[in-house]
Design brief:
Helix content: 40-55%
Number of helices: 14
CATH architecture of the largest domain: 3-Layer(aba) Sandwich
Oligomer: single chain
Largest sheet: 7 strands, mixed
Strand order of the largest sheet: 2-8-7-6-5-3-4
Radius of gyration: 22 Å
Structural class: alpha/beta
CATH class of the largest domain: Alpha Beta
Number of strands: 12
Order of helices and strands: EHHEHEHHEHEHEHHEEHHHEHEEEH
Shape: globular
Length: 363
């Protein structure tokens, strides 16, 4: 039995033994000079995998998104995105601070924007308003619970963007989860975007790193933006070696994470008042709606932690569980068991002191 079951995020995955061995033996050079053979190989593999002309290895997905916007946009311009997109919600106002652009967050449906919404948000040519210079999408959409956008949905947005010659950037941190869920080649999901960022360090289990891909010209300009942000790494092949294994050997197994997430969702829906929208459990993220329970999110997280289960808060009454390669079916069953016991125990107590910390689960 693990010391604790960590469902906070798929970022907590540890590298495989094969990754560690490859990292130890990786041929390296100075990547800023373009001389690290392992980084060069990773970038070639990544570009081919998403059918783009070139790719760039970066330390993080956040840096990848920021570099993309810096490369696509000029200062004082505007970027359209869904209102709860990661690039708006979780990247420390980087678009304003670093790129000097204005964000145009638009509430979507399950994290998705319609072509009509996008077209209506594009600024007219007018002295008083910023120029719309970029549309940012997210697939899968984190705060919507891992919702997947289909190639057809993205193609509709592409059609709207083309009318105004506006590029599209895709935050595809978990794009391989989307491809596996849809049983489609990842190339289909990125065919209609100008640039795409995807993470190697989430479900694909690398210790560090993300990829930004696009045209050769775009990536050449992006290299300068990466350097500007301090992201030029030296003998980075030690990290890139793990990324190669991520792309070659860790994609197909994401289906196991999706199956575990579905098991969690189906088993916990309705337990002690927990509500889960099962139609939105499409990949490896499960959102627990606690509004009809005796718990708010911080209280449930406390009780879970006492039982050696870690999760994360998404709102005052929403808890997120994320499955990944280091969570197996036994861990899922144990998590289900512990949550059911917690909810059963507290729903059987009518005292106003039912949150007493001395509570211990037995069995």
């Amino acid at each position: 039995m693990k010391d604790f079951i960590d469902l906070r995020s798929d970022t907590v995955t540890i590298p495989t033994e094969e990754m560690r061995e490859a990292m130890a033996k990786a041929p390296v050079g100075d990547d800023v000079y373009g001389e690290d053979p392992t980084v060069n190989r990773l970038e070639e593999i990544a570009a081919t995998r998403v059918a783009k002309e070139a790719a760039l290895f970066l330390p993080s997905g956040t840096m990848g998104n920021q570099v993309a916007v810096l490369t696509h946009c000029g200062r004082g311009e505007e970027v359209i995105m869904e209102a709860q997109a990661h690039v708006f919600y979780y990247e420390v106002a980087g678009l304003a601070v670093l790129a000097g652009v204005q964000t145009r967050p638009i509430p979507g449906n399950d994290g998705k924007l319609s072509s009509q919404q996008v077209e209506e948000a594009i600024r007219p040519i007018d002295l008083h308003v910023p120029r719309t210079s970029l549309i940012c999408l997210e697939n899968t959409h984190n705060r919507a619970g891992g919702i997947v956008s289909t190639p057809e949905e993205i193609a509709a947005l592409r059609k709207a963007a083309n009318k105004y010659q506006i590029p599209i950037h895709l935050d595809g941190a978990r794009i391989f989860n989307a491809a596996v869920a849809l049983k489609r080649d990842v190339k289909d999901l990125v065919a209609d975007v100008d640039s795409v960022m995807f993470c190697l360090s989430k479900g694909l289990a690398s210790p560090v790193g993300s990829i930004l891909a696009g045209t050769k010209d775009f990536i050449e300009r992006a290299k300068k933006m990466r350097k500007l942000l301090g992201g030029g790494m030296r003998q980075a092949g030690i990290l890139a070696a793990a990324g190669i294994i991520s792309l070659e050997k860790m994609v197909e197994r994401l289906e196991i994470d999706h199956q575990n997430a579905k098991l969690l969702a189906e088993s916990l829906n309705g337990v002690g008042g927990i509500k889960i929208n099962l139609s939105r459990v499409q990949t490896n993220i499960v959102l627990l709606d606690l509004t009809e329970t005796k718990f708010d999110a911080p209280t449930l997280l406390l009780k879970l932690a006492e039982q050696n289960v870690r999760a994360s808060q998404f709102s005052p009454y929403t808890v997120r569980l994320v499955t990944h390669k280091d969570i197996n079916s036994d861990d899922v069953e144990e998590t289900i068991k512990r949550i059911k016991l917690i909810m059963k125990f507290f729903f059987s107590i009518k005292s106003p002191y039912f949150f007493h910390k001395s509570f211990i689960l037995l069995g």
